[in-house]
Amino acid sequence: MQQFKRLVPLMNRVLIKKLEVPNKTQSGILLNTGDTKNPAGVVIEAGEGYYDHKGDFVKICVKIGDTVLLPEFGGQKVNVSGQELLIFRDTDFLGILSR
């Protein structure tokens, strides 16, 4: 399969890079990563939005750089620049995470 350097999602689709679950703490203690899932990801690219059934334009609710809470299942896997990324619709996200 051919690898691409960039993917720009269309309409209300968003390209996500899942956040890695750390396997050890800063002090070097190893963590049990067998049962932990990190359902969060960072928005890499995003479409402009879409037109609803009334013909009104609906902008997407996230922007590049946002950290979002992902559903447990879903997303289309794609390989861009050697990275495994996911494509979701912006309505699939459960929330935007902030510090």
UniProtKB/TrEMBL annotation:
<keyword id="KW-0143">Chaperone</keyword>
<dbReference type="GO" id="GO:0044183">
    <property type="term" value="F:protein folding chaperone"/>
</dbReference>
<dbReference type="GO" id="GO:0051082">
    <property type="term" value="F:unfolded protein binding"/>
</dbReference>
<dbReference type="GO" id="GO:0005524">
    <property type="term" value="F:ATP binding"/>
</dbReference>
<dbReference type="Pfam" id="PF00166">
    <property type="entry name" value="Cpn10"/>
</dbReference>
<dbReference type="InterPro" id="IPR018369">
    <property type="entry name" value="Chaprnonin_Cpn10_CS"/>
</dbReference>
<dbReference type="InterPro" id="IPR020818">
    <property type="entry name" value="Chaperonin_GroES"/>
</dbReference>
<dbReference type="GO" id="GO:0051087">
    <property type="term" value="F:protein-folding chaperone binding"/>
</dbReference>
<comment type="similarity">
    <text>Belongs to the GroES chaperonin family.</text>
</comment>
<dbReference type="GO" id="GO:0046872">
    <property type="term" value="F:metal ion binding"/>
</dbReference>
<protein>
    <recommendedName>
        <fullName>20 kDa chaperonin, chloroplastic</fullName>
    </recommendedName>
</protein>
<dbReference type="GO" id="GO:0005739">
    <property type="term" value="C:mitochondrion"/>
</dbReference>
